[in-house]
Amino acid sequence: MAKSLVIVESPAKAKTIGKYLGNDYTVEASIGHIMDLPKNDIGVELKKRTFEPTLIVSPGKEKVVDRLKKLAAKADAIYLAPDPDREGEAIAAHLKMQIAPAVRNKKIQRVTFNEITPKAVKAAFSHARDINDNLMYAQQTRRVLDRLVGYQISPLLWDKVKRGLSAGRVQTVALRLIVEREREINAFNPVEYWTIDAELMPKGGKQSFLARLVGINGEPARVANGTDKEGKPQFLSNALADQKITDATIEALKKATWTVRGVEKKERRRNAPAPFTTSKLQQDAAGRLGFNVRRTMGVAQRLYEGIDVGKDGTVGLITYMRTDSVRVSPDAITEARDYIGKKLGAKYLPASANQFKGKKDAQDAHEAIRPTHVEYTPESIRRYLTDEQFRLYKLIWNRFVASQMTPAVFDQTSVDIAAKSDKTYDFRVSGSVLKFDGFLKVYEAPQAVAATEKKAEEESGKQSEDSEDAETSLPALNQGDPLGLNRLDPQQKFTDPPPRFNEASLVKTLEELGIGRPSTYASIINTIQERDYVKKMKSKLVPTEIGMVVTELLVKNFPYIFKFDYTAQLESELDDVEDGKEKWTDLLKGFYDHFEKELVVADKNMEEIKRWEKPTTEICEKCGSPLILKWGKFGSFFSCSNFSKAKPMAVAIGPVKKDVKAVVKKVTAKLGFPMTVKGMVDDAEAFAEEVEDDKHLRDALTEAAERSKKIVVEPFSCDYTRENFADKPDLASPDAQDAEAEEEYCDNCGKQMVLKNGPFGPFMSCPDYSADPPCKTIRKLNQKQQQKPPEPTGEICPECGKHELVKRQGPYGEFISCSGYPKCKYIKQNLLEVPCPKDGAPIAERRTRRNTTFYGCTNYPKCDFTSNQKLVPGPCPKCKSSYLLEVERKDGVYLVCPNNVEALPKRKAKAGEEAAKPATECHFEKRIGDKPEPKELERPDPEKTRPLVEA
Predict the structure, then answer these.
(1) What is the distance between the alpha carbons of residues 390 and 387, in angstroms, rounded to a whole number?
(2) Angle at Cα 413 formed by Cα 410 and Cα 419, nearest 5°?
(3) Does the annotation count 883 as an active-site position?
(4) What's the confidence (pLDDT) of residue 767?
(5) Which of 79, 320, 592, 745 is catalytic?
(6) Rounded distance, CA 99 to CA 85, Å?
(7) pLDDT tens profile 379-415
(8) pTM here?
(9) Radius of gyration (Cα) for the chain, nearest Å?
């Protein structure tokens, strides 16, 4: 009997939905996108301005598509059920494009659900619809926009800066925010200011309190603090300008009479927060749980797709996690209010449901993020969740329940105090006490988080919502009460620069500017990190030198395309395409008209960074010449201005003796002064002299011709270089060290990623990479664009005896070499005690590209002896071989004679050669221990990995 076919994105979701639908449905996964633009071509029609994309089946997805076609051909009905957003609609459209020819007249329908629960899934099938072309076109337009920018700007960066760089339409704007904030920090000039706190006590009282100076003679005490972006003056409140004014004020206050001028008491209410949108969830998860954006979305995805909760089976625990709406279904509100009334009490339940207003440009396509069933309290299902799943689910559950609770009530008291001396000095103290906890019963910020938020708000000149909620206890005070002064506490302070962005604050700023959408925040942040444009240091996003340079070039040469307001405008236009208000081709034409003009100008005017030669005030440590700033593989570096690429020039003796002036003319035409004239006799140096002008060169050539048989003129060249660490994040700093590794999960199928070794080093891979059908999700581990500074070891180089040995970073890990490189090329090697069987030279331990160990002769390439097994000193007891081999097997570690061919791992012979046979056959082997546990591969910080789906 034929069944209906349902196609979703991930196997995890397929498993959950399959249980809900029963035996009449076959649920399969497309494992993400099945079609995309080609990688080796722009794939967009530009000549006729139709902007039609050329879509192909994604490499590696051929088997998946074939399987879905075969299942569709046998099915009664086909339902497409990817995620309910633009990207999901595009996946559904691509599935229909591939399946439709194979099913002829069968109807292919689209179903969507905001939550994966039996009720929501079954209801979705009763409201099946056709593909929403507007949604699909909105996603297609975004993809085409990104392709146009990436494929037409990136070649410019390759040509002007270095190969491998890339630009992104939205990512570059996000990077611009980080770079401009860094420039603000570097240009920041701190402003000095002073505050005065007075410890006071009522006459006859026992409880003291602190009050702060807020004004003098009714005028506010404030200090000028520059201007804002609009040019309006800014001030620091409750502050004095300098120590002189502060000292004079202190002296006056010591003689002052202190009285209570007024007391104001009022009740303040703090309303419940709205349920989570995507950006608010990412911000709160960062502040409260320490989750980065990608981790938050990964955990939320698994909660949405379903968790096995015992007797109820697999249940989707939260609604769809990519939303900018605060709307909640009436059924969910009723469920939350019932729970509050029964479990928490009537005093926590408002008379009517709380309603929340979303932001103006919210798409409002989905509900807010909430638990699918309030009855699944975090504690009741704790045993079924991992620690990170429990913590995030609890955060979502608490926020949603709190959103339907009564406000918290505070009793707030403000006391104005007058200190009368030569002037009247105004002091103020405020305190608030929690009178009724309301929604704070289930959603109260931890003190550490509140303190961090308060500090960030203070640095930005704003007052935190929580800053007034601190429970400050005040003694009973009434107007006119005299006060006694215990002490005065003047403090010198300086303004802080604006804080660097972290992931949460960047998402908040992007949302405020209207850049990006809930489904794109995580990919934006991932992209700028994986491209090494940004380095995360102590959870802060710090632009790298290459990030600063690329941003400056792009913003300067593409001033319109990378403007904040234009990028936000494009997002609004994409929303209009989704709503059917604007044609997708009209949007692209308007964009490309601007973009094409800027491309032409940028191609002519963009600065060539790779040919940088900027003069500096730095001096060469070798020759004392000025250093110049150049651009290299790892960014800018200092190079001696006396460095020369010119090659030495051989001069025949005959022409020198015949016409030395003509020879001088030829030499100076190719080489510049200073230069060295060397005379050689049988490869030995018989004469050498440095010359600095024509006359000196003529004399040196004449003398060299008389004293030698061969003359060589060498240009003077100083090879001194030094990396420009000042313009790069300090990778040796403790703040820059990789964070503890987190579990990573496949973006397509949700399985836990595993660490594997490849030809280019370790990488994270889906465990089903080689399955049938395969899931080709990988995360390439970060390749650092900047090396750590060399670390001194305290040892002197044994080869040159002059320089210290230093520890450096190389492509295969750390190594120790001479600091006098390139003149001294000594590298410290791990040598074995066994000499090479071929030529007697030392044997060294070496590493392959795949990070495996082998042993080879140090006389390579003259001697090609290598061994995959470690050589052990000592003769073989049977055949007297001069060494033995250490061989690892499943049952233990053995010492094996190199002549025991049968006991050694089989090794392929070189091309065109037969396998070598030992002169003496031997069968010696001896077990010496158990097989050691495999070393765990060093796993770099997942913050520096990038998703490359179907790469």
Answers:
(1) 5
(2) 160
(3) no
(4) 83
(5) 320
(6) 21
(7) 999 999 999 999 999 999 999 999 999 999 999 999 9
(8) 0.75
(9) 36
